[in-house]
Amino acid sequence: MFTTFFKMKTQPFAERIAPENIIKNEHMCQGLARLQYMAAQGTIALITGQTGVGKSALIRLFLANLPPNHYLPIYIYFTHLKAIGLLRLIVTELGEIAKITKERLFLQLMEKLSKINLTVLLIIDEAHLLDSDIITDLRLLVSSALDNAPPLKIILAGQERIKSQLKTSSHLDFAHRISVYFHLEPLTKAQTEAYIDSQLKYSGVSEKIFEQEVKYMINEYSNGIPRQINNIATACLINASIQKIQKINLDLLNQTMAELQKL
Q1: Where are the alpha helices (DSSP H) in 203-249?
Q2: What is d(CA 69, CA 14) in angstroms, rounded to the nearest whole number?
Q3: Are 224 and 192 in contact (CB under 8 A)?
Q4: 64-96 pLDDT, tens per residue?
Q5: What gap in Å lies between CA 258 and CA 245, rounded to an integer?
Q6: Tens digits of per-residue pLDDT, 169-204?
Q7: Greater confidence, 148 or 233?
Q8: At CA 104, angle to CA 103 and CA 109, rounded to 5?
Q9: Where in the chain is the domain with CATH 3.40.50.300?
Q10: What is the topology classification, in CATH, of domain 26-183?
């Protein structure tokens, strides 16, 4: 394996890394600040971005920095479910045996939320796939006029098209309750270089394994999307180890890209 060839402690470009090793560039810090504000003072946060741009990494970083014993996070990514299915999933995550009908489920959920001493954070990934009825139910969960504070806070993360869905008249009330919105942009050339260097350092090797021009070209090929950067960089390392090459240069990158583009 290439990790042995390059004497790496770990795979540097794995998709899921420990939160403490997530690179905290300007974009990540801005997103984290907004989520932390929502957790303290807001009700709903909306995080958008292209597939693979780092929305899940931002959420992991946020959860890792939450004050202990103050919050109960519930992470949901089965967004293809109908409204009743999602409600059942939330109730189950809260440790309850879900009721059968939607009405009883809703009351069960509200009762459970009212008894929890922690702030419940409902985090819904792939939110652009949510059914319209689910958005209506989420609005009802946070819109009680009788409570001083909503029974839970919601973070939606998904592709940018969810914004169009929330602009429809049926969901304007939900949209108006969004406390913070953040769009996670792809990495710039400089940020891609810093990201590659950081991941190599995390694995215990020199950032000079990749020539600087290669890092810039990886940004071009990947459009600055971290998931694609990971895929390209990993493919380069595999090719280099097979060919017994200690440094990734432009020739090897171009060879690797020719192979990847055949897929």
Answers
A1: 212-222, 226-242
A2: 30
A3: yes
A4: 999 878 899 999 887 777 888 888 888 888 888
A5: 18
A6: 888 888 999 999 999 999 999 999 999 999 999 899
A7: 233
A8: 100
A9: 26-183
A10: Rossmann fold (3.40.50)
Please list the residue range(s) of the chain that carry CATH number 1.10.8.60.
2-12+188-260
Query: DSSP letter at 203?
Result: T
CB atoms within 10 A of CB 199: 23
Sign of the torsion formed by the C-alpha atoms of 81, 83, 85 and 90:
positive
Report the DSSP beta bridge partners of residue 124.
Answer: 76, 156
Q: Using alpha carbons, select from 141, 161, 145 the residue that is nearest to residue 48.
A: 161
| Residue whose entry in the numeric block shows the structure tokens 């709903």 | 44
Comparing 142 with 219, which gets the higher pLDDT? 219
Distance CA 206, CA 183 (A): 32
* Residue 15: how many other CB atoms lie within 10 Å: 13
Q: Give dist(CA 220, CA 207) in Å, integer.
A: 19
Which tokens go with 239?
Answer: 């090719």
Q: Rg (Cα) of the chain, in Å, rounded?
A: 22
CA angle 158/163/166 to nearest 5° reads 110
Q: Options 3.40.50.2300, 1.10.8.60, 2.40.10.480, 3.90.550.10; which CATH number does 2-12+188-260 get?
A: 1.10.8.60
